[in-house]
Known about the structure:
The protein is an alpha+beta fold. The protein contains 4 helices and 4 strands.
Amino acid sequence: MRRSRKRQQVRAGGLVALAVSILVAVASCSVLGDSDQERAESDAIATAIQETLAQRPDVVRVEVGYQNNISNPASASVTAFLKPGADFDRFIDEAVRLLWLSKLSPLSGISVSVSDDADIHRGTTRYVAPADEDKAELEQKYGPRPPG
């Protein structure tokens, strides 16, 4: 009788773990799953920022994206190739400013990767966490984020 009681406890524990896993998976999908309308709005904002950055005289090509899924929650990214000798810091500052002041929401991470179009060994990547440790600095530098 003891063995069957332990088996029942083990089975019950397994069922509870399975139920919790399913609930977490469903909650994650609903929390991080943008609707079609939200994705279209985010894509439009990212495209507008991309077009603004592309107009800079130092830009050869640039791509701006936004994702809000389990792999990349509320993440904006910029990948740019600049003309030889261009100032990476000025470009990165402008990209971060545009993303920070945009209506992309939520926004928990910004990644900006910049490379010299003529020298693949010259490049840098900067990551900013606007929802966490970098929020105060971004607010001081660029002002508050617009309401989402």
